[in-house]
Amino acid sequence: MPPAVFELRAEIARKLRWEPVEDLLRLNGFEEDWELTVLDGKACPGDRSLEACGIRSGSRVVTVRKVLFADGWKINADVDDVDSSDEEDEF
What CATH number should be reported for the domain holding residue 45? Predict the structure, then answer.
């Protein structure tokens, strides 16, 4: 069986020392695919073979990985400091 796009993505991740896609932080409600592979402007689904997507030796593909992280987020434990006004109150 010819290699699939998801196998190409995994090989790229290994070479770039990225975390395995299974270990990425998933937020509730985030349903998009973690990775996208594009050849000549067309998305290549992860479950399709490289051959079916037209990816050959020497093809230039673009692979994008979405990584979520909570940089700068802070939980405010002091409920009294929460601003309860909404935009309509300011008019």
Answer: 3.10.20.90
Can you give the pTM of this predicted structure?
0.65
Residue 54 lies in a domain: yes
Measured on CA atoms in the order 33, 48, 10, 8, is the torsion positive or negative?
negative
Q: Who's near 50: CB < 8 A, 6+ residues apart?
A: 2, 3, 4, 5, 8, 44, 56
Other CB atoms within 10 A of residue 22 CB: 7
- Going 22 to 25 to 29 to 34, the CA torsion angle's sign is negative
Domain range for 9 is: 1-20+33-70
Span 26-55, mean pLDDT?
88
